[in-house]
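During the no-cost extension, the postdoctoral fellow (Dr. R.K.) reprocessed legacy sequence entries with the updated structure-token encoder. One reprocessed record is reproduced below for audit purposes.
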Amino acid sequence: MKYVGSKLLTVLAFSSLLLTGCEDPGVNISTLGLKLAAPQLKGTNPFDQDFDSQNYAHIQGTCDTRVGDISISLNDNNWQTPPVTPDTTGTSLGSVTNDINCADGVFDVYLTKADLTSLWGITVAADGGTDVDSILIKGETIIGETKTLTLLDPKQSGSPGSGSGTA
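Re-encoded structure tokens follow.
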């Protein structure tokens, strides 16, 4: 009878180890569909700036300090994290740095014409203009993404990304 007890204990221990080995010990965080608030625009709307003559737009805003880096999409095509050091070729900007992290509650980004082409794939027309009708900004958090701030070009009408954006 004592051998049956030790065999049962051995089988129980082996089964526990086998089942434990099959489980992923990683912690899953469920957000229940909740998101932090979208970043908020603080400075001048980039569509009210003279991008064609400056070759850049300056975007400043506030965000929740629990947010990490921000991501930007132009015309809702692809999301990119702006570079820490923007390509200022063709601008009057000196050496500038993008503040893309919301740890201090603010972000401060220069979107340059060179970065629009190289990172976002936006085509620059012969007259120097671009085909950007909307700028979307969101933040990354430990539990997912924030809601999205959407900036639309009020001078355009039509569908975003077509050269005639929504107002």
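The CA atoms of residues 69 and 100 lie 5 Å apart. The helical segments are 2-22, 51-54, 113-118. The remaining legacy entries will be reprocessed before the final report is submitted.
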